Amino acid sequence: MIKFICKILLFFGIVGLFDMGYGVFCKSLTSKAKGGTTYHYYYSTKATDEDVILMGSSRMCRHYNPTVISDSLNMTVYNTGVKGNGIILNYGILNMILERYSPKLIVYDVFSFDMYNDERFADDDARYLDNLKDYYDNDEIKDIFAKVNPMETMKMHSMLYRYNSKFPRLVGDCLHPTEKYDRGYNPYYGSMDYAPDLNDGRNDQLDIDTLKLYYVRKFIEKAQEHGVPLVISASPRYGVSPVNHYNDPIKDICKEYNVPFLDYYADEGIINNKDYFHDANHLNNIGADVFSTIFVTELKKYLNDEN
Amino acid sequence: MVFNSLNFWLVFPLVFCLYWIIPNKYNQIRKVFLIIVSYLLYMNWKPAFALVLLGVTLVTYWGGKIVQLRDKREELKVRNRKRLACLFALLALLPLLVFKYYNFLNDSISSGLASMGLQFTLPGLNWAVPVGISFFSFQAVGYMLDVYHGRVKAEKNLLDYVLFVSFFPQILSGPISKADELLPQIKETHKFDYRQGRQGLKLLLWGMFMKVVVADRLGIYVDLAFPNYQHMSGANCFMASVMYTFQIYGDFAGYSYMAIGIGKLLGFNLVNNFNRPYLATSVTDFWRRWHISLTRWLTQQVYIPLGGSRCSRLRNYWNIIVTFLVSGIWHGANWTFIFWGIIHGILQVIEKALGWQKYNGKSQFVKVMRIMVTFLLVNFAWVFFRMPNIGDAFLFIGKIFADFGHLDVLSIGTTHLAIIAISIPILIFKDIRQEFFFNKMSFFNIPVCRWMVYVMLFILILGFGVLDGGQFIYVSF
Question: Which residue, among B311, B366, A186, B182, has the nearest Cα to B319 in the 3D structure?
Answer without folding.
Answer: B311
